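Quick illustration, no need to memorize.
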Amino acid sequence: MLTAWQEAEIIDIQPEVAGTKRFFLRLPEVETLDFRPGQFMTFDLPIHEKRNRRWRSYSIASAPNGTNVLEFVIVLLEGGLGTEYLFNQASIGTRFPVRGPQGHFTLPESIEKEICFICTGTGIAPFRSMLQHIYQNNIPHKGLQLVFGTRLQENILYYNEMKELDQKMPDFTYHVALSREKNPDWTGYKGYVHQIYENLYADKRDAHFYICGWQNMIDEACQRLHAMGYQRKINIICESYG
């Protein structure tokens, strides 16, 4: 059952990396917005005459915190009417209808297996929500791995936050894969996300794999994990945004 539309107001916009911003939205009609980490909201933006052509969905990047403020991390897509509106026309105080939370890309009620989060770009949003929720609520868990991929060091989202979480949260390890980095000062991994999780799970141990990003990355990850013996719907859960 879909939730009703309600008004949201942009209360802050912060640059994250080049071409990507963090948008903070307040929903004044409610005091607290309850949601499960990994869910998304649908925005109704003034970009088309037909209503369903105005809808854009974005994963919530913040963890539930007992307030009516949500964070979203959004990349500017060339020719994308939704993101061009948010980046070039919207500002603090801009209001538009939103609907949600929606989606089933969420954590199990009890974390009984190791989880590997695999993402590229803003696909980190639902995982940031999940990881902060686990950490802030001291939720029992097995091993947690975050494998984040992007092109260059300057494109890494939430880098310092995830490094700090790696140090503070037991049984959590943060991995970064840079596919086009040439700077010799970067001593981390250079390549794609696939080699990292293949090496981590070369022993084929039981785990859940949550994957979020562009469809072609998800397709390749599913094929590689299937070849390793993992099964869709049993071990592999996906969320695509293109």
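The chain is about 20% helix and 35% strand.
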